[in-house]
Design brief:
Layout (H helix, E strand, L loop, with lengths): L22 E8 L2 H7 L8 H17 L3 E7 L2 E6 L10 H23 L10 E8 L2 H30 L5 H8 L4 H12 L8 H5 L1 E10 L2 E9 L6 H6 L20 H7 L19
Antiparallel strand pairs: 1-3, 1-4, 2-3, 2-5, 5-6
The chain binds guanosine-5'-triphosphate and magnesium ion.
Magnesium ion (MG) binds next to strand 1.
Pfam families: Thg1, Thg1C
Function: Adds a GMP to the 5'-end of tRNA(His) after transcription and RNase P cleavage.
InterPro entries: Thg1_C_dom, tRNAHis_GuaTrfase_cat, tRNAHis_GuaTrfase_Thg1, tRNAHis_GuaTrfase_Thg1_sf
């Protein structure tokens, strides 16, 4: 391209390359989802289908960005963890952030009608941020922080909406009843007043969703897919089991439940099954 006298303006662009050898986490969060969930009549406190729109959008992001080794979602947020060595987009912060956030948003819209039976009333949008973690422990603690957040919020919200929807309390009355209570009190209230054992509620609501790339065994064949897990990632057991996250990136086998989650089925349907030997393993940085 010919040089023009305007060319010098390029020098105003700042280098935003992320330093090497750190975990890159991108977290997106829905803008005003309090209103969005009301407008779209989400079930309270958890709407399984709406959460699956989030999960499906995050799956689409993981399919595109092969250097994402784990994604973790709850409520209206998702965190994406890039492997430490990623060279994706030359580690340029703005590029990574905007690609992930915009792909997530457009995928959310694309997935909507596959899970929800009412039309989108308006375009949802998501903010995004980049956070860097230098050590494995920092990364584990970050994810534990997000999972602990689900626990605190979900226990409160479950008790709150039971009081409002089943006991007929006003929002203010329910709030007053729960003010100053500890987890054990809320567990007790759910059990005594509603016969609910909190630990028996769906794991997706209590633990959020962890997306990992795994080998799904289908009879004689297997193929890679992004699979949803609802495990306790605060426990050391999780990290012992899923060694591919922090170690050499070789996806493990998916311990599939009896019926494959729809999220996995959707990835597998309509595609040829790869023989295990031919499994694609190119996880080099997207550029
Ligand atoms: P900003 O993120 O600051 O724009 O505000 P926000 O309204 O999105 O609040 P925040 O991100 O803190 O919390 C997410 C909100 O989304 C929750 O407070 C709920 O109101 C709503 N939400 C998310 N998931 C569900 C769901 O499964 N069911 C229902 N009913 N609401 C949900
Ligand atoms: Mg939000």
């Amino acid at each position: 391209m010919a040089c023009s006298r305007f060319e010098y303006v390029k020098s105003f662009e700042q280098d935003d390359s992320i330093l090497p050898n750190v975990w890159i986490v991108i977290r997106i969060d829905g803008k005003k989802f309090h209103k969005f969930s009301k407008t779209h009549d989400f079930e309270k406190p958890n709407d399984e289908n709406a959460l699956n729109v989030m999960n499906a959008a995050a799956t689409a992001v993981m399919q595109e960005f092969r250097d994402i080794v784990l994604a973790y979602g709850q409520s209206d947020e998702y965190s994406f963890v890039f492997r430490k060595e990623t060279a994706a987009f030359k580690r340029r912060s703005a590029k990574l952030l905007t690609y992930v956030t915009s792909l997530f948003s457009s995928s959310y819209v694309m997935q909507w009608s596959k899970w929800m039976n009412l039309p989108l009333a308006y375009a949802p949008c998501f903010d995004g941020r980049v956070v860097l973690y230098p050590s494995e422990q920092n990364l584990k603690d970050y994810l534990s922080w997000r999972q602990a957040d689900v626990h605190v919020n979900n226990l409160y919200n479950t008790a709150f909406w039971k009081l409002v929807l089943e006991k007929g309390l006003t929002n203010q009355q329910a709030e007053a009843k729960l003010r100053g209570t500890f987890s054990a009190d809320k567990n007790e209230l759910l059990f005594q007043e509603f016969g609910i054992n909190y630990n028996n509620l769906p794991a997706m609501y209590r633990k959020g969703t962890i997306l990992l790339r795994k080998r799904v065994i289908l009879g004689e064949k297997s193929r890679q897919a992004v699979v949803p897990l609802h495990e306790d990632l605060i426990s050391s057991q999780f990290w012992k089991e899923h060694t591919e996250i922090l170690g050499k990136y070789v996806p493990g086998t998916y311990n599939a439940p009896q019926t494959l989650p729809r999220l996995v089925e959707m990835q597998i349907n309509g595609k040829e099954l790869d023989d295990e030997a031919e499994e694609p393993q190119n996880l080099a940085g997207t550029s």
